[in-house]
Every structure is written in C-alpha cells, then in structure tokens.
Amino acid sequence: MNVAPQLVFRTNPNPYVALRSTQTVLRCFFSGTGPMSYQWTYNGAGVLPAGWTAADTDLLSPETETPVSDAGTFACYGNNGQGSAASASITLAVEALPEFGDGPGRIVDVNVTDGDQVTLSCASDALPKASVQWYKNTQPFDANSLPAKFSLSADRLTLKIDDVCKNCSDGTSDLMVIQCIASNRHGSTLAQGYVNVLLPTAIVSESTSVPWVSFGTYSFDCLATCDDSTVCAVEWSFNGGQRIASNGASLVIGDDGSLTINTGNDTDGGRARIGSYECRATNGYSEQSITCTIDAPPVEIAEMWWVGLLVALLVLLLLLLVLCCCFFCFCREGKSYPVDKNERKNGNDPEKELLEIGFQDYMHSKNQPIDIYANPVYGVADVTVPPPIYKAPFMDYTDYTVDQDNRNTPSGSRKGGYGGDGGGGRDTPPSAGVPAEATQTKSAYPVNGNQSWNSSEV
Hints:
By secondary structure, the chain is mainly beta. It has helices at 305-333, 338-345, 350-357; strands spanning 6-10, 16-19, 25-31, 37-42, 53-55, 58-60, 72-79, 86-99, 110-113, 118-121, 125-127, 131-136, 139-140, 150-152, 158-161, 176-184, 187-198, 202-203, 209-211, 217-220, 224-225, 233-238, 242-243, 251-253, 259-262, 275-282, 287-295, 399-400, 440-441. The strands form 8 sheets. Strands 2, 4, 7, 8 and 11 form a 5-stranded mixed β-sheet that branches. Strands 9-17-16-12-13 form a 5-stranded mixed β-sheet, with no helix packed on it.
C-alpha cells in the first residue's frame, strides 16, 4: 500500500528565534511509502540565503553565526512520488545578546590629566535593546543619587566625571575602576575600564632672553616634570617651526632638556641664530612650553650715517627755500611802480611832493575856480587847460578847475595829485602863461594815462 508524505516533525517553536552569535539548524521530517526527497525554499523562492546549506531533513545556517538579515520564512517540502508533496513552513527571527565591540562605545582604560573631564560609554549591540547598570570599584551606582562630579545621560549609556583629581583636597582620589553590565532576555555582558589620573606636565625653568654676541655661546634651561607613571620628553624648535636636532657640536640638547648653542664656527658670527627657541615638554597626555630668545643687537650709530646725511640734506633744502622766500619778498618790497619811475625821469620827486601837498587837491569846493592870475605858473597869456590825465574812481569831475599850486595838473589825476595810470608819468606843461579866464567845466575828455600835452595847442 502506497502512503503519501505526511509531516511528522518540524523545528519549534514557530516562529523560531535564533541567536546571531550561534549556528542555526532548521529541521523537518515526513513519513510515507518509499524513499522521501526534501526541498527547502526561502521567502517563496528556491534560492537560500548566502552560506545556508540543505542536507535532506536539515537546513543549516553558516557555522559561526546567523546573520540578522537572514530572518524570514523557510519552507520544507517532502515528496515520495505517491501523490502530492507535503510541506511545512518555519518563521525565523534573529536576535542577539549584548555585545561590546572595539569602537568608542566600549569602556576601556583611560589616562586623563588632573583637572580634566573623562567620558565613558556603555553602548552595547543587543537585540532587543539592553539595559545598563554602572559600578564604581564593584559598587553599583544609584542613577537617582549619583556621587558629586558624576552624571549620566538620559539613556544611561554615557557616564561623565568632571574635574578629576589624583590627590583630591578631601583626601580621596579619582583613581578608580568603572564597570557596566548590559543585559537583555538573552543574557548580560560586562565591560570595565581603569581611570588613571595623571599629574600635569610642567616646566620648572623660566623663559629667558639674551643679547646676541658675535661668536658667542648661549645656554637655555628647560627642566620639566611629568607624572611618575609616564615618560617626559623635551624637544626644541627654532622660530616656531624648525625642529632642532642635537649634533653634539654647535647644538647640544642635554639630558635635563637644556639647549646649548655654540656659534664659534659660524661664518656670520651667529647672526643666523638670532630668533626664538621654543622648548616643549610632553608625556603624551599633557604638555607645556616656554620660549627663549637671542635678541638682535641695537643698530650702531656708525651704521646710521646715511640717515644723518639724509636729514642734513633735508635741512639744507629747507634753509634754501626760506632764503629764496626772503629774497623774493625783499625785492618786491623795494620795487618802484611805473608811475614813480616816469616822475623821477622828468626830474620830479613824487614822495617829497606827496608829503608837502598831501591830499589838499581833493579839498577844493565844487564849482569853485582858482584865480590863476594871482600867480601865473607858465606865463602864457592864453592857454587851454588840458584834459585830466587820470580820473580817480572816487573823484567828481563835473566841475573842473585848474590848481595853480600843482603845475596846472588836474586835481585828482592820480592819488597824491600826479598824472598817469601807471604807464605814462607826469606830462610837461608849456612854458607860456595862462590867462585868467582859462577854466574848464564838465570835461568830456576820456581818461588816458599815456596822454601828453603838445605845446602847439597853446
């Protein structure tokens, strides 16, 4: 009698939860007549996840793990050729117990300098998510009542310790072992680290400055102290960049960190070594530095001769400019006007006459003629008075009279009573007498400083 395939066994429970860190084995078994053949599928397809292998009734995941991404539905089919094939499905879920990787989420030993802050993390990789419990030197922390300087993040995965001290003022020390336990339903994992507090690196020596001396020798101290659990290293650099290497001759760095500079063999007497020398001491966790200098010498007076020469030239130019200005002003002050030159050329003394007559010409009353017969000047019986040579802007020439005291020169011919507007000079009158009735009123003659009298008109 032939019997069709019937399911006898399959992996339980369903769904089946596998752990990521272990190998997973899925099984199914069918009964029936004759030999039975088995076939496995994944999520409705005949292609299995990478690394999975089928061996009749068993289906095996990779040897070392079951990837979380392989979660899904696996189906098992049994066929003995006696009717339709039988099948059974198994739903696979993959979870993980807490694990700490090698990344920043894991607690590790840490060295921190006195006065600094330290941050520790307890972030595990777990499915489902793990809960965390912190410990200090095996004593659990109460998240609701933490010691001073300690604080937890809201998810309790990060612990911070502020202002750590190696020898605290209250007699305690922050040298400690910090532990955390991450737990979920699959188990728990412990992580721990040591907090080592280091004294800060310090340089005992002070910064110094020395003057440059030709072919001199200079010595700078750099005595540093570091925490006893660390190694203190000292290095020198020149002018903020170039690291100095000891050569045992011109540059020597001693065991105590001092630097000796010998310029005895330098061709420039050591001028190239003028500058700043920085000493940096470090133990890899903290550092300190000081700066020493070889100062450039002051500029010698002998080297400043060109500055003195330049100053002397500037002073000389300034003096020449002042002299030129004075000479120019003097020449302008002593210069005669063209009118005065013409007056002197005709034998007159304008300055003297100005002092003698002043401005009396301008004081004659309007329409008041002068009797020229009382004291004829030229001795001419009949003469026509020439027109005024210069019409001053402030004079009124409506009524013109002859001034016998001024050589028949019209009143107001120029300031001071002399003819010409700066280019003509005084005109020489004729020698003949002037008749008593010779007067002129309302002169219509134009002003012309260069106009002269002609004796033929008398």
